Amino acid sequence: MEKIGLYGFGYLGKGRAYLEKLQQHATETVDEQALNQYVQQQIERGEVVYYGYQANGSLAYGPDFSPAKAQAKAVATGYTDHSGDKLLACTRRGPSGSWGEVFFTDHTFLFNTMRAYRMGFLSFRSYEEADAFISAIHQNLLPGEKWQFAKGEQNPALVRPKTRYEILESYLQMTFSKLVLEYQDPQSPNYQKIIFSKDGKYCYFNTGLLTNFAEDLYLIGEVYGKKPNGLFICNDPRMADGQRSLVTRYGFAKEAVQNGPGVATFFTRIQDIIYDPSVPIDFTAAKLQHIIVDGIERGRFPRHYTQQYQNGQIALWDLSQKLKAGIENARLIATRNYKYVVPQYRAATRQRPGAIQFLMPIYLDRMFDKQPDFALVLSYHDGYYVPETILLLAWAYQNARILCKPDDSWLNPSEIVDDVPEGAPSDESTAAPVTRHPAPAVNTASAPPQSPATAGPSAVASVVSRPAAGDSALTEGALAFPHRVWLRQLTIGNNASLRGLFDGDKVGTISRKKTGDCDLEPLLGQQMLVDIVARNPLGGTYQATPVRDGSNAFTLRPEHPNCAVKQPAGTPAHTPQAQAAPHQGSHTTTGTAPATAAPDLPAAVPAAATSPLEQLVQNLPQGITVQDLFSQLVQGMQASITPTSNPAETAPAAAPAPISAPPPPTAGPTSSPSIGDIVVLRDIKKGNNGGIRGVFGDGSATATISRSLLTHPKAYYYEKQQLPVRLLGVNPLGGGFRAEPAEQP
């Protein structure tokens, strides 16, 4: 029997309770038969109003709005409320796509409710206000951190677009949710970290972020709908002006805001956020089923594996073996780099509390010079790590950033494309399975065709085109591989790779495997002849292979100094079968290539050999510390620059025999910098122990500024990129100069 009226419009629950709900709003007695006849007539006339979200995040409604994309619909009941407004029967679409229970209200209330934008317990009147709020916060933050991903295709699974800085939005949402859930718990470290005004109308809390003046960033908002258990919504949050405004304008107690609320605490022991590679991972059949089968159906596996599985070309056993091999590779790397497996915070829900988990990068094909395929989520229980699910990198980064900013390793927001496939919701509790069909391909209309990933240097060398005199003018979408260009402005990228520019602003990357054991420092800022061999699947960059000469050395621009490739001790040289001819008029370097890595070891595992600095520290005489050695070296250099009247007064009491410092590097063929000179430092990057470093002169000389001598936040220097500095002396370890910021001479 066909359902008519409200029975065919949405879910009405048990019995005739819906009539009682309508009667609470209506000014006249509700008649069930008349109600459903009227509603049926409205439906047949096409008077149903659909509500949904446009691509810009704003709300749209009307009879012409697409019912398939609508998130709510409403139809007139024929009754009015006590204000004279028409009462509408409304229903909203649930996570599974079906229409939910019918409720009754007027158009104004429904429109305002739909138009509002929620970030957990933070609420805004509209998407536009939420986006403006997030943008204002971003503008006032301490610079130097990336708060948005590289943009891919719009995720069709999103009901509504995220705000402009989605990482920042996620951070604020989860941080405030943590505070709201725990501010009333005396046993929690977040107890009383939300402060309320005397009348309870406003709340005040610490975001845990720093402003561009390196001060705590506090927010204030209106308290709405506070429940007996303490949960509430913070409406219209904004940045707090100052304590006087909080006291005089919003009615906070002076003593309550004097020191400000503390930042949210997510863990109390440092051990809770450090992954232990010795702890076994407990796999069960149910977990493998969820991770592999459900992961494929939810679009979290690489597309080629998804298609092979759906076409019956790969078995579950094979996928399980690849997954376990990827886990073992990650464990091997984590034993050598404790930061490789990243902690994340799993937000609390109604069914479970929040928890610290770990994100393990999984490379199914061992292609460590690319982004991982996904992150495996691990929870610690009773002496075991339990695999929970797998996450795409965008979700993994957002969860990890709640605890701290991950190092720029495999979780790098500048290279993660926020391109989530359809049917892949981030919330496990609301995720709906997707029917088995090939995952939709990414729109690559503007992307050039990719060469096979297995093509090596020898294959490239035999088919490369003749290079032009300078950077080739390449047309996006028509870039043929391989293509020979000069890669300029070389810098160090992720995993000790090289990055540079070609054809305007295109970015080419050279993996550490392709540079071998070469010292990368002398290459910074230079130009290298390379073959562009493929487009990286994530980040919009291109893979490059260095063009080597007959002696297997890099080919650099003639005006740039050489960089010799260091041969590892005790390993035979490996010569490719085919060598590319050097570019006409180029300047080549000397040296031999390093041996290739053993095929059964992951390429990203660091070498076990100790550096000269580590050997020096290990061989210090008993009773002599690194600080003693460093002080002696510095004092010795200062004495050689400015002799003192009595050198014995400055010598350490129990110092070992003096160790001669390495000579300073030359600045180039035409200039020799001296101590006290003021030079212009450029290509400024992160140095060791919180300092910065850069090059000057013709690019062959380097200088470092220690963290204690920085007069501004590091991001200030990164933005300037050129900085007058005064040379203070020679670095006792590593070469180059020590420097301090100086005024322009």
Biggest β-sheet strands, sense, barrel: 6 strands, mixed
Please tell me the overall pLDDT: 76
Distance between the termini: 90 Å
Low-confidence blocks of residues: 421-477, 560-612, 636-671
The tally of beta strands, per DSSP, is 29
Determine the number of helices (DSSP H or I, runs of at least 4 residues): 16
Shape, per Cα inertia axes: globular
User: How much of the sequence is in beta strands?
Assistant: 15-25%
What would you call the structural class?
A: alpha+beta
Give the total of domains: 6
Biggest sheet, spatial arrangement of strands: 6-7-12-11-10-9
Helix content: 10-25%
Q: Output the radius of gyration.
A: 31 Å
Give your account of this protein's structure:
By secondary structure, the chain is of the alpha+beta class. The chain folds into 6 domains: 5-115, no CATH class; 119-257, no CATH class; 270-430, no CATH class; 457-588, no CATH class; 614-650; 678-741. Helix 5 (166-182) crosses helix 11.
Map the helices and strands.
Blueprint: H1 17-25, H2 32-44, E1 49-53, E2 59-62, E3 72-80, E4 86-92, E5 103-105, H3 107-115, E6 117-119, E7 122-124, H4 127-139, E8 150-151, H5 166-182, E9 195-196, E10 202-210, E11 216-224, E12 233-239, H6 243-248, H7 254-257, H8 285-297, H9 303-310, H10 316-334, E13 342-346, E14 355-362, E15 374-381, E16 384-391, H11 393-401, E17 417-418, H12 457-461, E18 483-492, E19 498-502, E20 506-510, H13 512-515, E21 528-535, E22 542-546, E23 555-556, E24 587-588, H14 612-618, H15 626-641, E25 678-686, E26 692-696, E27 701-705, H16 714-720, E28 722-730, E29 737-741
Parallel strand pairs: 7-12, 8-17, 20-22, 27-29
Antiparallel strand pairs: 1-2, 1-3, 3-4, 4-5, 6-7, 9-10, 10-11, 11-12, 13-14, 14-15, 15-16, 18-19, 18-21, 19-20, 21-22, 23-24, 25-26, 25-28, 26-27, 28-29
